[in-house]
Amino acid sequence: MLTSTHLLKQRRFAPLFATQLLNAFNDNLYKNAMVLFVVYSVYNSAAAETIFSGVASAVFILPFFLLSAMSGQLADMRDKARIIRIVKAAEIAIMTVGAAGLLLAWQGMLTELVAIPLMMLALLAMGVHSTFFGPIKYAILPQHLKREEVLAGTGLVEAGTYIAIMGGTIVAGFVSAQVAAGLVIAIAVIGYLTSRHVPPAPPFTEGQPVDWHIIRSSIALVRNTMHNREVFYAILAISFFWTIGAVLFIQFPPLAKNVLMASKEVASLFLVIFSVGVALGSVAINALLKGKVSARYSPISVVFMGLFVAVFYFVCHLWAGEAHGSELMDIGTFIAQPLAPLVLFSLLLIAIAGGMFVVPLYAFLTTKVDPSQASRTVAANNIVNSGAMVGGSVLALGLSAAGVPLVEQLLLSAGMCLISAWLGYLLYSAEKLAAADLVRR
Question: Is 65 exposed, middle or buried (0-12, 13-18, 19+ CB in 10 A)?
């Protein structure tokens, strides 16, 4: 990717990159503004805050589970650029509803009766929006880029996504709810305007019918990926990785507030560091692989991720044992604490290792299948991913309901990384087997 930033100047890539960048920024600005406002201004209980964070994650993920089969079929059977423009136009209406909820909550008007349901409705609709946009942003790459550019393009999309997540998270942590309400509408409008410049991406096969039956089409879509061992193991590895990610992201805001005694600005800083780390991991793995799509470094990357999660656990455990008073610390006060550099550095290393693990796996989904099947393969991945993330959300909620302390829950995430390493190893073995079969032919 270091040598492929020329893609950012190309019309075949730049408008798509800008559109998905704005999409990720707006998603995270809205989600984090909503969650941080409710966690820090509405509830005053670690259990209630964790439950709200988990429910919000589940609401956003649910459409991926239900509608990915439909979105994948449409993306492969219709012009991808046209679908992008439709979903970006819908985002303007969705964010108007979400902005109304934020404004009502900021004013303290009917917060639990109207404001929170409105915000959740917008979050659900944004999940639907992202379900239809998600398969396209990867599947369109082989259509507009040369084969040797696909990994670089995927890395740029991933790095850009996490930079946008970082930007949206920063803004959400530092602006008031009413400012966030205005911004999400404005960015939705800009995103629609950039989407109008994405070059056409017509389907490879015309006139095929779409199966609108949610359950049947979802089962068929996932089943059709199982015959390709590389794609199948890539989907399993990505899905389990995001199970771990779901648990960690649900824990972050309540852990920051109730264990580290940090303000919402510090909670936002944690998410920013995590996003920077994944972007750095995206760059690093592309440099190591030199543009080749391979899972060679995935097993060791996720093993290191587990080790860094364990380090983060021990640092948080030490932090909880020290006296920090009852007031929430702002960024300056937090950084002045002796253990703060260890907290931030361990978070950064977790994210770098995670980025190195997961980024090459997404490239498998679009380069190891026929181009006419690329969107459906990404959609099949989204179905399994979303089911795994809902499972991770339920697991986090269950642990909190059972009274397991937030810090102790981190050990579970560390242990789960070993399973991800095993899945990464299976993928790399399947990759070597496929390469050997190709040589024999």
Answer: buried
Tokens read off for 166: 């970082």
> Please, which residues have CB within 8 angstroms of residue 363's CB and are 6 or more apart in sequence?
150, 151, 154, 293
Q: Which residue has the tokens 């059977």?
A: 77
Longest dimension (CA), the chain: 70
Q: What is this structure's pTM?
A: 0.70
3-state secondary structure the chain: CCCCHHHHHCCCCHHHHHHHHHHHHHHHHHHHHHHHHHHHHCCCCHHHHHHHHHHHHHHHHHHHHHHHHHHHHHHHHCCHHHHHHHHHHHHHHHHHHHHHHHHHHHHCCCHHHHHHHHHHHHHHHHHHHHHHHHHHHHHCHHHHCCHHHHHHHHHHHHHHHHHHHHHHHHHHHHCCHHHHHHHHHHHHHHHHHHHCCCCCCCCCCCCCCCCCCHHHHHHHHHHHHCCCHHHHHHHHHHHHHHHHHHHHHHHHHHHHHHCCCECHHHHHHHHHHHHHHHHHHHHHHHHHHCCCCCCCCHHHHHHHHHHHHHHHHHHHHHHHCCCCCCCCECHHHHHCCCCHHHHHHHHHHHHHHHHHHHHHHHHHHHHCCCHHHHHHHHHHHHHHHHHHHHHHHHHHHHHHHCCCCHHHHHHHHHHHHHHHHHHHHHHHHHHHHHHHHHHHC
Lookup result for tokens 């455990």:
317
Residue of 199, 223, 221, 194 lying closest to 74 (CA atoms): 221
- Could you tell me the two tokens for 42? 């509405």
Other CB atoms within 10 A of residue 43 CB: 17
pLDDT in tens, the chain (441 residues): 444 567 777 777 889 889 999 998 998 899 888 887 887 777 666 667 777 777 887 788 888 878 888 887 887 778 888 999 999 999 999 999 999 998 898 887 777 788 889 999 999 999 899 888 877 877 787 777 777 777 777 778 877 877 787 788 778 878 888 899 999 999 999 999 999 998 888 877 665 667 777 778 778 877 877 778 888 899 989 888 888 877 777 777 777 777 888 887 787 788 778 778 887 888 888 888 887 888 899 999 999 999 999 999 888 888 876 656 667 888 888 888 888 899 899 989 998 999 899 888 887 877 787 776 776 787 788 788 888 877 777 777 787 777 777 778 788 888 888 999 999 999 999 888 888 876 766
